[in-house]
Design goal:
The chain has 373 residues and is of the alpha/beta class. The protein has 2 domains: 65 residues, Urease, subunit C, domain 1; 254 residues, Metal-dependent hydrolases (TIM Barrel), CATH 3.20.20. It is built from 10 helices and 21 strands.
């Protein structure tokens, strides 16, 4: 058994000061507020111990683009992510030529066992962000590569993944989109709405068919208007919908962050939407994002700086994303949960990370066994 104490711990009841967690192997076996009885193996001197962060929208990082990477590239990313507080993630594959996308989806099942044994942040399946997107809101997706969600293409993508596709983003106004939602849900795939000019009515029709998530709220989608609240308004108003939010303090203003958390309390998920630049040096002299390089612990810090309570910001990057994809063993510090933990300092930056009870990132050397050099 390993007992960890910290000045603050995010438990299911909320933030407790101080608190402790006891691990046995890969699982949490006991938690509590105050000081633990008995020996403490790791005493964190400051900051907050939280569940490991769960990123539902990550296309790459540390120089790796997941859509084209081999298993070595995926492992490299997995070993880098714990330094950002991420212990589990949903890899996002962007729009590509159909044959290339099918090949990328098919590669994942063959790599899965090796990735699970590697010891880094764990991929949780696949998020297909395309090709079923609107050419009117393509973002970084090539408009000439976008496709309508025909039954044949939907089935091909699902089949190529052999059960690995967890989430698909689509624009609900496309021809065949509602039937595609039915098809995806019947196959156990969750549906997200994004890269869309959908009206309020079209969005609600998709939600009625089973869409339950919105990809990067506010970005590349119809915005709120009093006569037609659009995708943003419909998502914020509907309690069935969880919304992803890229809190980078550049593309999404602090006021918009507060609006999202107020309107969709308990339904906001912080996502990085990161690509290969994550974890690589930013251009000299810049203090803002240089592309898709947002760290998820940085997103937590940005949300708190925008006025969101620390408890809510942390849950939006751990508990709520895990719940959104049906993984209750992740994102929580409760008995029986997987022992994925992150220690965040006073600036909310990751200083140590555990995955399945094993320390995998240690910025300060505090986790070395007694007597270790």
């Amino acid at each position: 058994m390993v007992t960890i104490s910290a000045p603050r711990v995010l438990l299911a009841r909320g933030l407790v000061e101080p608190g402790w967690v006891r691990l046995a192997g890969a699982r949490v076996v006991e938690v509590g507020a105050g000081r633990p009885v008995g020996e403490v193996d790791v005493c964190l001197p400051e900051g907050t111990l939280a569940p490991g962060l769960v990123d539902l929208h990550l296309g790459g990082g540390f120089g790796v683009e997941l859509a084209t990477a081999d298993e070595a590239g995926w492992r490299h990313l997995g070993f880098g992510l714990p330094g950002t507080g991420v212990t589990a993630y949903l890899p996002a594959l962007m729009t590509a030529p159909v044959e290339q996308l099918l090949a990328a989806v098919a590669r994942y099942p063959t790599m899965r066992a090796g990735l699970e044994q590697a010891g880094g942040a764990q991929p949780l399946g696949l998020h297909l962000e395309g090709p079923f997107l609107s050419a009117a809101e393509p973002g970084l997706h090539g408009p000439d590569l976008l496709r309508d969600p025909t039954p044949e293409l939907v089935d091909a993508l699902i089949g190529a993944g052999s059960g690995s596709v967890v989430l698909v983003t689509l624009a609900p106004e496309l021809p065949g989109a509602l039937a595609a939602i039915d098809r995806l849900r019947a196959a156990g795939v969750r549906v997200s709405l994004g890269h869309s000019r959908a009206s309020d009515r079209q969005t609600l029709a998709a939600v009625e068919r089973g869409a339950r998530f919105v990809t990067h709220l506010f970005a590349d989608q119809s915005s709120l208007h009093q006569r037609d609240p659009g995708l943003v308004g419909a998502a914020l108003a509907d309690p069935r919908v969880t919304v992803g939010l890229v809190v980078d303090r550049v593309e999404v203003a602090d006021t918009a962050v507060r609006v999202a958390f107020a309107a969709a309390a308990g339904r906001v998920v912080l996502v990085s939407d990161a690509l290969a630049p994550l974890g690589t040096p930013r251009p000299w002299g810049t203090g803002t994002r240089s592309g898709a390089d947002l760290r998820l612990d940085e997103a937590v810090a940005n949300a708190i700086a925008a006025g969101i309570e620390p408890r809510l910001a942390l849950q939006a990057a751990s508990t709520i994303p895990a719940r959104a994809i049906g993984r209750p063993e992740l994102g929580r510090i409760v008995p029986g949960a997987r022992a994925d933990l992150v220690w965040l300092d006073a600036t909310w930056r990751a200083r140590a990370t555990w995955i399945a009870g094993q320390p995998v990132f240690d910025a300060d050397g505090l986790l070395a066994p007694a007597g270790a050099p």
